[in-house]
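Onboarding guide, step 5: your first structure request.
Type a short instruction followed by the sequence, for example:

Predict the 3D structure of this protein.
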Amino acid sequence: MRNKRSVFRKNPLFEKCPSCGNYNTLHRSHARSLRERLVKNFTPYKKYRCGQCGWRGYRSTLNFSRGSAKVIIFYIGLIVVVAWLVKQILGRFMP
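The system replies with structure tokens like these:
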């Protein structure tokens, strides 16, 4: 059976450096400021450094497949419909 996952984790350590293009030279870099710590803790982006050229920047640890946009739109629509229904029901019982 085919894998139906729309979002999955990836490891940026095996990607090429966006600056020099070498493979397997990226490694995790420590957060230096409060902003970098907040980004690291609350988003799927982590700080990486290239051992070859010294590039330092963010790489995402999530990857979206082709069907993920359709799934995300479906769930957002579902949330909107349910919120509207709850508002209508509560509006009838609580004047």
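Each response can be followed by summary notes, for example: The first strand starts at residue 7 and ends at 9.
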